[in-house]
Structures are given as C-alpha cells and as structure tokens.
C-alpha cells in the first residue's frame, strides 16, 4: 500500500524525490528553480568543475538527432576559484540539496576540487565525473578499475560528505568498475554518462560538431543505461543513481525496477525545465494506482525465464 511518498535515501542523502538534475544540463538559476516545487526535485546536480578554467571545445557544440542530442562541450567551466567566490555563496539559498561535480585529468585535480567542495556549506554531496567522453583522457579513470579505485580513495580522504562516482558507459564490464568505486570508498554510483557518437553533414563531408565526435544523450541511450544500472546494482551494495534517456515517470520506474535508487533527468529537461514536476506528479499517480512504494519496487527485475 503506497502513500505515494517519493522520498528516497541515496548514498548518505535523504531526498524528497528520486528525481535529480543531471550534471551540465541545469544551472542554479533561481528563475529556473522557481518553476519547481522542492518536493518534486530531490537534488540539484551541477556542472563539472575543474581546478583551472577550461574554454571547452570549438563550436558547434550541440546537435540534435532523432534519438536525442550529441554534445561536445568539453567541460567548459570558469575553474575552481571563480566557483568558490561566485557560485558557492549562492548555493546556500537553493531549496534542495546540491550535488557538486568534480572533474580533471589527474588524481590531484579531483582531490583539489573535492577538498574545496568539502569546505562549502552549500554543497551536500560530491559527484566525481570519471567519465566525460569529450576531453582527452577523459575516460581513463572509468575504464581502468585500479585507476578508478585510486582516484575515489584519494577523494574519500578529502571529504566526509557523501561521495558519488559517475561511471562511463564505454566499458565492457561495468561490474568491475562498480566494485572498484565501492572499494575506494564511494557512497553511491551514478550510471552512466554520455557515450561517444558521430553525426555527419555529408554534403560538407564534415562532422556536425566542431569537436568531431560528441557524447550521445537522450532516449537513444536509455536501453544502454538500463542495462548498466542493472549490472552495476547487482555487482555491489552501493545505491545507484541512473542517468541516461529518462523523460517520463514510466522511464523512472523502469530504472527503479532495474535497481536505481534515484534518477537524473538531463536532455529531456532542456525543452521543459518544469519536467521534474510533471514527472513527479505522474510518478505519484502510478505508485498510487499500483499501490506500491518506490523502495518495494527497487531492484525487483527478474531475469527472463530460460527458453525451453
Ligand atoms: C550539454 C550536456 C552537458 C553535459 N555536461 C556534463 C558535465 O559537465 N559533467 C557530467 O558529469 N556530465 C555531463 N553531461 C552528462 C549528463 O549529466 C548525463 O549523464 C547524460 O546527458 C545522460 O542523461 P540524459 O540522457 O538524461 O541527458 C552533460 C550532458 C549534456 C547533454
């Protein structure tokens, strides 16, 4: 029997809703946040911050295709000093928990950003972007379990705040990466990030993005994300935050049944920043209709019966 409460616990955080923004797809703009009821949005996950400013990749940086979007932003950001002085003070006024996202090339980069986040009152948890496909060497930490464990362990030393490891879809065995993050001391996994793709302008004989290839997101990657969430959640004890192609309450419940504790929505919210409230309303309706709670549904996916 469900009271249609959407509250969930994820890696050390109690959230009013399982719906989160996805890093790089939603800012901390008060006008956009005012569109949302804090009961509908579990947490605001912010764009990756690196120690130094990054100009990002050449334009065009985004292109649409039928299944979603290809982006090659290249982790453009103004760097840690700017963030500390300008963004961090504003976060204390955000009405939901803020998950800040750390990136870099070396372990020292991740540690520097995590240490800074640890000291910021407005940051509730730290997500490590170990999986950006649009920067050189961006996937090293997510494809090598030893390197992944090392970077997570180093960041674990740097913060007592909940630490989430965001994994790449570009791996043959996500289970070993999930276990490496767990061994390094992560509190949760985010599964997954964008996957490299290519869009072509055949008349110009050129890629449609200035960076050549880009990260695929949106509905096209939902089956991939569902498979990875299922495999990662069975491989370790950590709660899994799903990311990849979610755009409706039905999608959220598919991810929950596959093992997710919460779900990020990125590309789908570009068109409708108030999508979180629509999905939360539909989710409450579906849970009431089925008289079931989110925790009861979580990780209940049965493998298909063998063909006789
Ligand atoms: C334009 C754009 C920028 C992104 N920037 C980041 C980023 O800075 N850090 C990160 O960890 N993920 C980033 N992502 C990946 C998203 O957080 C998310 O994992 C991915 O888009 C899959 O979810 P979706 O299909 O709901 O968009 C970005 C995605 C897009 C589309």
Which SSEs are present, and which pair or pack?
Layout: E1 8-10, E2 13-15, E3 19-21, H1 30-34, E4 44-49, E5 62-65, E6 68-71, H2 79-91, E7 98-102, H3 107-118, E8 125-129, H4 140-143, H5 145-158, E9 163-167, H6 174-184, E10 188-191, E11 195-197, E12 200-201, E13 206-207, E14 214-217, H7 222-235, E15 240-243, H8 249-258, E16 260-265, H9 268-271, H10 275-290, H11 294-297
Bound molecules: flavin mononucleotide.
Structure description:
The chain is α/β, with parallel strands linked by helices and 308 residues long. The chain has a single domain, classed as Aldolase class I (TIM Barrel). 35% of the residues lie in helices and 20% in strands. The longest helix is centred in the last third of the chain and has 16 residues. The mean pLDDT is 94.
- CATH topology (level 3) name: TIM Barrel
Strand order of the largest sheet: 3-16-15-10-9-8-7-4
Mean pLDDT metric: 94
What count of structural domains?
A: 1
Question: What small-molecule ligands were found?
Answer: flavin mononucleotide
- What does the radius of gyration come to? 18 Å
Question: N-to-C terminal Cα separation, in Å?
Answer: 36 Å
Structural class: alpha/beta
Beta-strand share of residues: 15-25%
- What is the 3D shape? globular
CATH class: Alpha Beta
**CATH structural architecture:** Alpha-Beta Barrel
Q: What's the SSE pattern? A: EEEHEEEHEHEHHEHEEEEEHEHEHHH
What structural keywords apply?
308 residues, binds flavin mononucleotide, TIM Barrel, 11 helices, four-stranded antiparallel β-sheet, alpha/beta, 35% helix
